[in-house]
């Protein structure tokens, strides 16, 4: 998961006319614009560092109040610079430049500011303060499987989200306002069509595969063999090195829910979670977060500290993560060059397991309860469950207190499985507790974007050879030139069009799934 684009906190309730010291008045207008951006980036760095410390570094619970006060001071000052009249004047001036970097910077900031200004400051403050606490309490609720202890948080967050939709505005559906935050130009109407296409193809295919399944669970039992955390940690770094992530400009830590947080182009941090009896979980989460991290490291240098040093959208970001996790990380070509090394590193856990057996196991179709452990075919069904629940809440068709029952019903309908407790059900994801309403569709869209990008990459790059030789140079060069370097200068539809020469078309994704799994399970 890529943490959401930084949303400026408005925790200051003082009069913003009492502005802080501004950039040097002797500077020319371009210099002054960049001075503001540098100051805003410095505050963002400090706030992100506090968040990282609390999520990853085991900051003591007793220090929450002290850290919150410090965070409040930083966010107050960040907001005051953000809303400074001169900064707005500079943005308005440069936004008139159609083709310059400064014009792109200004237009991006103005869109963000226009959204924030529609929300009453005290309500926005309450929301941002609340989610900083609810995320920490969610961790304990997930471990215990206690939905009641988290229900009040979900209620407040969804109630506030619906209220903010009315402030921000939308054309057809209140959920659109939140979807737009993560995927510009996307709407419920478009997503209904997209998910409808997937549902029509995937559900029958999954049913056909289930009829063909004959192997016993013991066949893949080796995936539950014990691999000590330290062995997994060493191999995780090897995976990042092989895939092209620069560890001299990044870091891999641990957290309850894997995520990536870029402090800057040269300071990209990510996390995973190691399970000693489920070693493949960390393998694929590291490849996934590594895809996010490589994207962050490959922005053009001129975008640093401008607000454009971020992914085009959440779905484009997820396309990179899912590409490395699935298209590369589950391929026999990739493991043909790396399995022997992993086998030795994890010995004796895999001593009697062949490459073919391992590749078969990591590509099997098996409906599971946990989204981040789902196979490629059933994964979008997990996203549909979350999308339909969020949409129903915005429509008023579902109450938050009924989420667990609705979750179980949809999981049974789409995947044929039902959680034994809420920790492996409605509480498994951090997104709702963190206020990331509308993010989930990005995962499915990211899969579809990745398929289309890979189709056209394959016309210019020998992907199979690159994977077999563990040489990602040509792959990374293709991605950097066509996707990564642009940051937020291009909208998602522009990224896909310029990289592939075609508008977004989910049929590439659907065909990839059908081709892979119909062949694997003898359905054609």
UniProtKB/TrEMBL annotation:
It catalyses: Release of a C-terminal amino acid with broad specificity, except for -Pro. Belongs to the peptidase M32 family. Zn(2+) binds at residues 288, 292, 318. Keywords: Carboxypeptidase, Hydrolase, Metal-binding, Metalloprotease, Protease, Zinc. Residues 11-20 have a biased composition (Low complexity). Its cofactor is Zn(2+). Residues 1-28 are annotated as: Disordered. The keyword RNA-binding does not apply. SUPFAM superfamilies: Metalloproteases ('zincins'), catalytic domain. GO terms for molecular function: metal ion binding; metallocarboxypeptidase activity. Gene3D superfamilies: 1.10.1370.30. This is Metal-dependent carboxypeptidase. It comes from Acidaminobacter hydrogenoformans DSM 2784.
């Amino acid at each position: 998961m890529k943490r959401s684009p930084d949303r400026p906190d408005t925790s200051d309730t003082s009069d913003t006319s009492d502005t802080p010291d501004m950039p040097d008045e002797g500077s020319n207008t371009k210099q002054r614009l960049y001075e503001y951006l540098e100051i805003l980036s410095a505050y963002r760095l400090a706030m992100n560092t506090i968040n990282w410390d609390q999520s990853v570094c085991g900051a003591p619970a007793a220090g929450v109040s002290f850290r919150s006060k410090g965070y409040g001071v930083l966010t107050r000052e960040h907001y005051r610079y953000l809303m400074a009249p001169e900064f707005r004047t500079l943005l308005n001036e440069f936004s008139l430049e159609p083709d310059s970097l400064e014009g792109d910077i200004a237009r991006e900031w103005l869109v963000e500011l226009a959204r924030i200004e529609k929300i009453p400051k005290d309500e926005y403050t309450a929301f941002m303060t609340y989610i900083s606490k609810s995320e920490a309490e969610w961790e304990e609720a997930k471990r215990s499987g206690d939905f009641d202890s988290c229900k009040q948080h979900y209620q407040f967050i969804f109630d506030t989200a619906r209220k903010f939709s009315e402030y921000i505005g939308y054309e057809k559906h209140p959920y659109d306002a939140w979807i737009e935050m993560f995927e510009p130009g996307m709407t419920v109407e478009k997503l209904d069509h997209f998910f409808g296409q997937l549902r029509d193809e995937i559900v029958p295919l999954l049913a056909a595969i289930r009829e063909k399944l004959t192997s016993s669970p013991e066949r893949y039992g080796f995936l539950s063999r014990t691999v000590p955390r330290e062995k997994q940690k060493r191999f995780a770094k090897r995976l990042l090195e092989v895939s092209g992530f620069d560890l001299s400009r990044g870091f891999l830590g641990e957290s309850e829910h894997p995520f990536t947080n870029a402090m800057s182009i040269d300071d990209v941090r990510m996390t995973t979670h190691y399970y000693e009896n489920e070693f493949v979980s960390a393998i694929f989460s590291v490849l996934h977060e590594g895809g996010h991290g490589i994207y962050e490291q490959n922005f053009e240098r001129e975008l640093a500290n401008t607000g454009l040093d971020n992914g085009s959208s959440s779905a484009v970001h997820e396309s990179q993560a899912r590409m490395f996790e699935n298209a590369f990380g589950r391929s026999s070509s990739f493991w043909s060059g790396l399995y022997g090394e992993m086998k030795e590193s994890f010995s004796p856990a895999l001593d009697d397991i062949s490459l073919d057996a391992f590749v078969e196991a990591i590509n099997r179709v098996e409906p599971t309860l946990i989204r981040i452990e789902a196979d490629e075919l059933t994964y979008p069904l997990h996203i549909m469950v979350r999308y339909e629940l969020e949409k129903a809440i915005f429509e008023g068709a579902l109450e938050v207190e009924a989420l667990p029952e609705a979750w179980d019903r949809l999981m049974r309908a789409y995947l044929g499985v039902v959680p034994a407790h809420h920790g492996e059900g409605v509480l498994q994801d951090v997104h709702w507790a963190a206020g990331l309403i509308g993010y989930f569709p990005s995962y499915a869209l990211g899969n579809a974007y990745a398929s289309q990008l890979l189709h056209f990459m394959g016309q210019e790059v020998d992907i199979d050879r690159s994977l077999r030789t563990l040489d990602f140079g040509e792959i990374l060069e293709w991605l950097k030139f066509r996707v990564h370097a642009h940051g937020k200068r291009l909208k998602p539809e522009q990224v896909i069009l310029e990289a592939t020469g075609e508008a977004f078309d989910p049929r590439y994704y659907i065909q990839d799934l059908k081709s892979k799994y119909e062949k694997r399970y003898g359905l054609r």
